[in-house]
């Protein structure tokens, strides 16, 4: 292979991978010197001149002239007879510079050299890619769906970089087709061998926080600060916000008129229900706000155990617990306290109440569990609810709910 053809092939790499001229020259020289070491044992007496822009390269070997009978180191020395073939008036002790053609290295060495060059350029490219995305960890990034696999979606960005969105990092309602644009945060970058693996997440709390920064100008400008974010991806989230400017209503600014500002975020997260609450250093008030939409009667806090007894009227209990227990779970995560619900109700009525588990011979266990998920674990707590509301808040059919109500009513009629 001619010198010019080899250099031209790597000029293509330079254009394709956007390697700067100085870096490309350093890679080329390093690889050529390794090839010379293998061929001649040392590269100390070689000069390499590379011009990737013009597509040419020269390799010159410097050797000292010695008497024919004194030749000991063929790589570093040349006999007077051989030297005078190059220039008739050379004398012993002088230095001869002679050009080495790539063909002199041998065909096998040239093929190995080319492969080594490709490997070095890819290695450089991967190192730069690793550093680039390492700096993007925690930032929102957009890429296009290239391939949908059972355990991950493979994305490709505008520069052709591959990004992995694992199944567990996807919102349960996410459904992607080839060509779809996907937003998420760069969660992690790892070197797998020499190749960086870039991992995206849509389930991270950081993703929701960054969406607030992107969609709400006051958050982006720092006028509103996000104090805490907790979420059950695709189901429910709670975001605590604060502002140092008394003229700004942080909750109102984040939600917008009729939810106009937060609507885009909710849609991006697969209609995830987002509660935005005012942050406060008053623990009791913060827990009260975190349990919204339930109205809390009173709270008893144990700072040592980080537990809080929350007293609620009977009709507020199910609101505090929420569908599937999501509301109380997120409120506990946001405030940092384990919350225990204490019912407040008519004492005579409570004494007359019956635990739902007492009906296990007439009501299936899974049905009882469905009611317990929304905080309804006694007969009277269910009888006080509206049937349509129970259908909406549980995974039970109306017919099943009506059957349960009939059984419970019979208990109290008896």
From TrEMBL:
<dbReference type="GO" id="GO:0031564">
    <property type="term" value="P:transcription antitermination"/>
</dbReference>
<dbReference type="GO" id="GO:0006353">
    <property type="term" value="P:DNA-templated transcription termination"/>
</dbReference>
<dbReference type="Pfam" id="PF13184">
    <property type="entry name" value="KH_NusA_1st"/>
</dbReference>
<dbReference type="GO" id="GO:0005829">
    <property type="term" value="C:cytosol"/>
</dbReference>
<dbReference type="GO" id="GO:0003723">
    <property type="term" value="F:RNA binding"/>
</dbReference>
<dbReference type="InterPro" id="IPR010213">
    <property type="entry name" value="TF_NusA"/>
</dbReference>
<dbReference type="Pfam" id="PF08529">
    <property type="entry name" value="NusA_N"/>
</dbReference>
<dbReference type="InterPro" id="IPR009019">
    <property type="entry name" value="KH_sf_prok-type"/>
</dbReference>
<keyword id="KW-0806">Transcription termination</keyword>
<protein>
    <recommendedName>
        <fullName>Transcription termination/antitermination protein NusA</fullName>
    </recommendedName>
</protein>
<keyword id="KW-0963">Cytoplasm</keyword>
<feature type="domain" description="Transcription factor NusA first KH">
    <location>
        <begin position="202"/>
        <end position="279"/>
    </location>
</feature>
<dbReference type="InterPro" id="IPR015946">
    <property type="entry name" value="KH_dom-like_a/b"/>
</dbReference>
<keyword id="KW-0694">RNA-binding</keyword>
<keyword id="KW-0804">Transcription</keyword>
<feature type="domain" description="NusA-like second KH">
    <location>
        <begin position="284"/>
        <end position="346"/>
    </location>
</feature>
<feature type="domain" description="Transcription factor NusA N-terminal">
    <location>
        <begin position="6"/>
        <end position="125"/>
    </location>
</feature>
<dbReference type="GO" id="GO:0003700">
    <property type="term" value="F:DNA-binding transcription factor activity"/>
</dbReference>
<comment type="similarity">
    <text>Belongs to the NusA family.</text>
</comment>
<comment type="function">
    <text>Participates in both transcription termination and antitermination.</text>
</comment>
<dbReference type="Pfam" id="PF26594">
    <property type="entry name" value="KH_NusA_2nd"/>
</dbReference>
<dbReference type="InterPro" id="IPR058582">
    <property type="entry name" value="KH_NusA_2nd"/>
</dbReference>
<dbReference type="InterPro" id="IPR013735">
    <property type="entry name" value="TF_NusA_N"/>
</dbReference>
<keyword id="KW-0889">Transcription antitermination</keyword>
<dbReference type="InterPro" id="IPR030842">
    <property type="entry name" value="TF_NusA_bacterial"/>
</dbReference>
<dbReference type="InterPro" id="IPR025249">
    <property type="entry name" value="TF_NusA_KH_1st"/>
</dbReference>
<comment type="subunit">
    <text>Monomer. Binds directly to the core enzyme of the DNA-dependent RNA polymerase and to nascent RNA.</text>
</comment>
<keyword id="KW-0805">Transcription regulation</keyword>
<dbReference type="InterPro" id="IPR012340">
    <property type="entry name" value="NA-bd_OB-fold"/>
</dbReference>
<dbReference type="InterPro" id="IPR036555">
    <property type="entry name" value="NusA_N_sf"/>
</dbReference>
